[in-house]
Amino acid sequence: MTSPLRVSFEFFPPKAGEAEENFWSTVKRLETIGPDFVSVTYGAGGTTQDRTLATLSRITSQTSLKAAGHLTCVGKSKEDVNSVIRAYQAAGVNHIVALRGDPPAGVGTRFSPHPDGYRNAADLVRGIREIGAFEVSVSAYPERHPDSVSIEEDLAFMADKAENGATRALSQFFFHNAFFLRLRD
């Protein structure tokens, strides 16, 4: 009997050594649960980019799990970001979690896109779709993104991401179901 509960797991790419051994042991155990997918984070501004790609490649080639790679557009030109998309594609990763990413100076500071980069997550989604037929997940904020001035503005951003090809929205953790249900509806 199949459970109606759909789950995914998010991983940070492991560091070498014992942490890496423990990570792969955990991945094998979680594989038996049959999650919808597993995602691997990209690090602030792509700081774990090489480890992310290596982890995704190994998940794709050595497990039955469907792997999704996180991708942000912070501090990178479109060509730099596009090269990561192509590397994911070459590794057999067909699902990308497309995020604008946090401003380099931290949450609460103003985000400024790279002069030759993607402006926001909707623009990034459009760029991903121009490169390939990826499944694209985006972020959803039941209580409003910290940079949005209103829930209406936030919903407009969500609609823009969907119109540009997002196939799924992933929610942040929330405490009040009413906020999530409002977003869903």
- State the end-to-end CA separation: 29 Å
Mean pLDDT, rounded to whole units?
Answer: 90
Radius of gyration: 17 Å
> Strand percentage, roughly?
15-25%
Order of the strands making up the biggest sheet: 1-2-3-4-5-6
Give me the oligomer status: single chain
Helix content: 25-40%
Order of helices and strands: EHEHEHEHEHEH
Q: Label the overall shape.
A: globular
Total strand segments: 6
Low-pLDDT regions = none
Keywords:
185 residues, alpha/beta, 6-stranded parallel beta sheet, 6 helices, 6 strands, 16% strand, globular
Provide a concise account of the structure shown.
This protein is an alpha/beta fold and about 180 residues long. It is built from 6 helices and 6 strands.
